[in-house]
């Protein structure tokens, strides 16, 4: 467990800046075991199948689709489930958020060298349907390798987590336009393997491409302070239907299908 004084400082930073970094929650052996587990997961049969609803793709260095995330992941990975529900983490989250946290969702993102990052957004935009106070929701980033700006680490606009920012005029319900925020508030925390970022559901964040020569692998569980049972089940039942309805992640499948039709 973390020392109370250190955790008090983390709690203050979290509410002031919208994020904080927790250190020393996992042992070096635990991190090594999580990495080995990621290698196992990445070699499972069928991950590269376009119709696998668990996997999503991103554009790689040569413009081709590369498989970059497993979402959900906890149900097929007891070790990563252990990471996301680790007593030291749950204890720290309880203090920071001021109440007992339940897992909402969890994904594993492995950003290979050269692979693109994620445009600026606030997670809460995607969770409006939960009808929950944004202060009750957060995301945790468990870093399995060192991460910084060069390797495509996550960057934040410090202290801009007070409200949901509007999208651009042509898409007011969409992700906010980063031009409305002050670029001098951007920080990309440099993290060691095992460091844990915790960020508020309204914290505006983004990431760049991985320009390093190592994968930047992170486990990203999100949590909610709630008494409601079955939140995780509710989230993924809705998410699986959404992906099918909105055809999320099927781009490569459709491209292949079109080439078959015209052959
Ligand atoms: O892994 C990354 O680089 C960013 C991920 C992210 O921002 C998200 O999934 O919300």
TrEMBL record:
- Provide the GO MF annotations for this entry: 2-oxoglutarate-dependent dioxygenase activity; iron ion binding
Q: Which Gene3D superfamilies match?
A: q2cbj1_9rhob like domain
Question: Looking at the record's lineage, which domain of life comes first?
Answer: Bacteria
Q: Which Pfam families match?
A: PhyH
Task: Write out the entry's keywords from A to Z.
Answer: Dioxygenase, Oxidoreductase
**InterPro entries registered for this protein in UniProt:** Phytyl_CoA_dOase-like
Q: What is this protein called?
A: Phytanoyl-CoA dioxygenase family protein
> What are the leading ranks of the lineage?
Bacteria, Bacillati, Actinomycetota, Actinomycetes, Kitasatosporales
């Amino acid at each position: 467990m973390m020392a109370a004084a250190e955790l008090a400082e983390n709690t203050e930073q979290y509410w002031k800046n919208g994020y904080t970094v927790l250190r020393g929650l996992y042992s070096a052996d635990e991190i090594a075991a999580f990495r080995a587990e990621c290698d196992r997961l990445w070699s499972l049969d069928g991950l590269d199948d376009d119709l696998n609803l668990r996997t999503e793709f991103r554009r790689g260095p040569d413009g081709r689709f590369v498989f970059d995330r497993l979402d959900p992941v906890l149900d097929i990975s007891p070790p990563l489930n252990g990471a996301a529900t680790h007593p030291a983490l749950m204890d720290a989250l309880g203090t920071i958020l001021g109440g007992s946290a339940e897992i909402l969702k969890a994904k594993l993102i492995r950003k290979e060298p050269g692979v693109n990052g994620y445009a600026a957004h606030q997670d809460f935009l995607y969770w409006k349907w939960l009808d929950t106070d944004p202060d009750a929701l957060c995301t945790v980033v468990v870093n399995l390798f060192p991460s910084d700006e060069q390797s495509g680490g996550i960057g934040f606009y410090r202290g801009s987590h007070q409200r949901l920012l509007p999208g651009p005029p042509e898409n007011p319900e969409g992700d906010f336009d980063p031009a409305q925020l002050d670029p001098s508030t951007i920080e990309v925390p440099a993290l060691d393997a095992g460091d844990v970022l915790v960020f508020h559901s309204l914290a505006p964040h983004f990431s760049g491409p991985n320009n390093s020569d190592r994968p930047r692998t992170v486990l990203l569980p999100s949590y909610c302070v709630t008494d409601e049972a079955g939140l995780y089940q509710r989230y993924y039942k809705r998410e699986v239907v959404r992906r099918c309805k909105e055809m999320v992640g099927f781009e490569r499948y459709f491209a292949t299908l079109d080439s078959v039709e015209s052959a």
